[in-house]
Specification:
This protein is of the alpha/beta class and 181 residues long. It is built from five helices and seven strands; from the N terminus they run βαβαβαβαβββα. It has a single domain, classed as Flavodoxin domain (Rossmann fold, 3-Layer(aba) Sandwich), CATH 3.40.50.360. A five-stranded parallel sheet has the order 2-1-3-4-5, with helices on both faces. Its EC number is 1.-.-.-.
Length: 181
């Protein structure tokens, strides 16, 4: 069984992005075990804080990322880019230099926005960082979830959109299996 970390870039309790991530987790096949890795309590990365001992939250986060086999990133878009909390999480787990715990983990990027272009800017910005962090990223289908407020129901997310999520998950599962042969 593959343990898949879920990183949600929105810290808001009732975030649309978190609802999408929760739906993905429910739709995951039996051989993928998704688990949320929270980022909300990570202090901003400052290399000076590494010495003599890094903050406990950094250490716990790094250990959690190190233990997963792949990562699903869910990001909102703030001002045509990814949120600071998500960028900070990338930085925390890629440091200190030479101890990048993201490296080699197959990744999925899903951006969520109430706007029509579905967080394109955040999606592309995140992909750029993941390339540098040595994370192979699923290329197709791209996952820009636009107009999210129209896709929500009292019970969750509309069925047609859930079907699209299932397709993305199936493609990721194939991608993951191919890389981990």
């Amino acid at each position: 069984m593959a343990h898949i970390g879920i990183i949600v870039g929105s810290l808001r309790h009732a975030s649309f992005t978190k609802k999408v991530a929760q739906t993905f987790a429910k739709l995951a096949p039996a051989d993928l075990d998704p688990m949320l890795i929270p980022i909300g309590d990570l202090p901003l990365y400052n290399e000076d804080a590494e010495v003599p001992t890094p903050p406990a939250s950094w250490t716990a986060f790094r250990e959690a990322v190190a233990e997963v086999d792949g990562v699903w990133f869910f990001t909102p878009e703030y001002n045509r880019g990814l949120p600071a909390a998500l960028k900070n999480a990338l930085d925390v787990a890629s440091r200190p230099y030479g101890k990048n715990v993201w490296a080699g983990k197959p990744a999925l990027v899903v951006s969520v926005s109430p706007g029509a272009i579905g967080g394109f800017g955040a999606n592309m910005q995140l992909r750029q960082s993941l390339t540098f962090l040595d994370m192979p990223v699923l290329q197709q289908p791209e996952a820009y979830i636009g107009g999210i407020s129209k896709l929500l129901t009292e019970d969750g997310i509309v069925q047609g959109t859930q079907d699209y999520f299932a397709l993305i998950i199936d493609k990721y599962a194939d991608f993951y299996r191919q890389l981990k042969k």
